[in-house]
Amino acid sequence: MELLKQRILKDGSVKEGGILKVDSFLNHQIDIKLLNEIGKEFKKRFDGKKIEKILTIESSGIAIACITAQYFNVPVVFAKKSMSLNLGKDVYTSKVVSFTKNKTYNIYVCKKYIKKDEKILIIDDFLARGQAALGLLDIINQAGAVLSGIGIVIEKEFQKGRRVLEEKGAHIESLAIVKSMEDGQVVFR
Ligand code: 5GP
C-alpha cells in the first residue's frame, strides 16, 4: 500500500532492538484518513472471504480493527491484557510473549464473544515474531471458531513471524512489508 509506505518513510523512525516507531500516525496520535484507507485496503485484500467478526488485541489494534470493521460490517472484539472483575470467570485465555516489552503476559476474551464456527479475521498493527497473533489464534481454536485470515498493517519480514503463522495455515495480508531497518533506514520488500 503505497500511501502507507510513503507515510512510514516520512514519519516513522527506527529504534533500538528492531522497533519501528510510528507514534505520530498509528500508535499514539492516529491519522483517521489514513486508517480509512487501511480499512478499505483490508476489505479489498480479504474480498470473497467469509468474515463474521474481527479480533484484535489492546491497545494499538483497536482503532485499526474498528475502522476496518466498518467496511466488513461486523463487530470487533479485542483481547484484554489484564483480568478484571468485568470480564467474569467465563474467559478464554492465552499467553503472549511481548516483542516490545520483552515479557510474557496473559490475554483474555470473554467466552460469549467468540462462538463456535464463527469466521474470524485477526487484525493488528505490527507483525514481528508472530506471538500476539498466535495468542489470538489459540483463543479462536479454544472457541472452536475458524480463522479467515490475518490482516497486518506493518510486517517486519526479518523478524520471521509470517513463517510461524503460515505453519498454522494462516492466510496473511500485510499492507507494508519491511525487509530491513539497518542504519535507521527502512527498506520495503
Ligand atoms: P509479535 O507478537 O508479532 O512479535 O509482535 C507484534 C506486537 O508487538 C504488535 O501487537 C505490536 O503492538 C508490537 N510490536 C512489534 N513490533 C513493533 C514495532 O516495531 N513497533 C511498534 N510500535 N510495535 C511493535
What would you note in describing this structure?
The protein is an alpha/beta fold. It is 32% helix and 32% strand. The strands form three sheets. Strands 4-3-7-8-9-10 form a six-stranded mixed beta sheet, with helices on both faces. β3, α4 and β4 form a beta-alpha-beta unit. α3 crosses α4. The N and C termini lie close together (12 Å). The mean pLDDT is 97. The protein binds guanosine-5'-monophosphate (5GP). Guanosine-5'-monophosphate (5GP) binds next to β2, β7 and α5.
At a glance:
This protein has 189 residues and is α/β, with parallel strands linked by helices. Helix content is 32%, strand content 32%. Guanosine-5'-monophosphate binds at residues 19-20, 27, 57, 60, 99-100, 124-132, 161.
| Unreliably modeled segments | none
> What's the total count of β strands?
10
Quickly count the helices.
Answer: 6
- What is the helix content? 25-40%
Alpha-carbon distance between the two ends: 12 Å
Biggest sheet character? 6 strands, mixed
How are the secondary structure elements laid out?
Blueprint (H helix, E strand, L loop, with lengths): L1 H10 L1 E3 L3 E3 L1 H5 L4 H14 L7 E5 L2 H13 L3 E4 L11 E7 L6 E7 L8 E9 L3 H13 L2 E11 L4 H6 L5 E9 L6 E2 L1
Parallel strand pairs: 3-4, 3-7, 7-8, 8-9
Antiparallel strand pairs: 1-2, 5-6, 9-10
The site of guanosine-5'-monophosphate (5GP) has 17 residues, from strand 2, strand 7 and helix 5.
